[in-house]
Amino acid sequence: MPAQGSIEERFPELFNQTTVDPWTRKRDRKMKVLVIGMMRTGTKSMKAALEELGIREVYHMTTTMKNPKDADMWTAAINAKFFNKGKKFTRKEWDSLLGNCEACIDVPTAAFMPELIEAYPEAKVIVSERDPEKWYTSLSTTVGARATNWRIITLSLLDPFFLGKWGPFTGSLMQAVFGSKGVADKENALRTYKRMHQEVRDIAPKEKLLEYKLGDGWEPLCKFLNKDVPDEPFPFINESHEFQQRVDLIEKQSAIRAAKNILPIVGAAALVSAWYFGYLHRFS
C-alpha cells in the first residue's frame, strides 16, 4: 500500500493532537486482540488489516503521538515494571491507558504482553513475527540509527508539549526492552526479540493463540478471528520509508514549537540588553 493523500492524511497522529489525561479515561468495550508484534515487524500493515476487519481503535506506538500525555502514563508503567519505581499496573490502569481500543500492537504494548494477557483473558493473542535477521537490519537502520540523534535530544529540551514527553518515554522504553547493551548489540537485540515472543507462547492459552508470519496474508488471520476474507489485498505499508518521513516531520514540527517557545525569551533578553546598554550610555 503506497503512501497516498496529503501529509495530514498520511500522518494524522501528528496533526490535531489531543491533550486527554489518560488516567481519567474509561473503557466500555472488550479487548479483542493482543498482538505481540515488535516494532519493524509489519505492525502498521497488521494494524490496517485489523481495522479492515472491523477492529476499532488499534493501539500502536503512533497512538502515543496522537495524545502526547499518554507518554507520561507509559513512563509510569515502565518505571513500575522494569525499574521497581511505583505501583505496577492492574486492569484498572490498563483500562485507563488503553481506553476503548479493541486491539494492541507494536511497542510499548509489546513490552507488557504478559500483563495484558492477564488483564484481558477474553482477548485472542497473535504472535506476529518476521525473519529475525531481516528484523534486526530494519531495526538498526531506523530506530537504532535515530536513537542518538542530537537534534531529537536537543529539541526534547525545547519542546515540552511533545518531544519533552516522548523523548524520555522512548528512551526509557528502549532501555527497559533491550537493557544497557541496547539495539547496537546485535546478539542482545536478537536474544530479546526471541525471548519476548517465546514468553507469550508460553503463557497464552493455546486455543486463543495464532502464530502469524509476515506475508501470511488474510486467510489465517480471518479464520482465527472468525471474519470473512476481504476482497482487497492484504495491506502493505513500507514502514522503513514511513518511519523516516515521520521522524523528519516530528523534527520539523518540534523545531517550530521550540522556536515559538524561545522567541519570547530571546525577545525579552534583547529588550533587557537594549535597556541596560542604553542605561550605561547615559552615564558614559
- The total strand number stands at 5
Task: Please list the strands of the largest sheet in the order they lie side by side.
Answer: 2-3-1-4-5
- Give the uncertain stretches in residue-range form: 267-280
The ordered string of helix (H) and strand (E) elements is HEHEHHHEHEHHHHHEHH
Largest sheet: 5 strands, parallel
What percentage of residues falls in helices of 4 or more residues? 55-70%
- Summing up helix and strand content along with how strands pair, one would put the structural category as alpha/beta
Q: What is the CA-based Rg, rounded? A: 22 Å
Strand content: 5-15%
Report the average pLDDT across residues: 87
- Shape, principal axes of CA atoms: globular
What is the count of DSSP helices, taking H or I runs of 4+ residues? 13
**Termini separation (Å)?**
71 Å
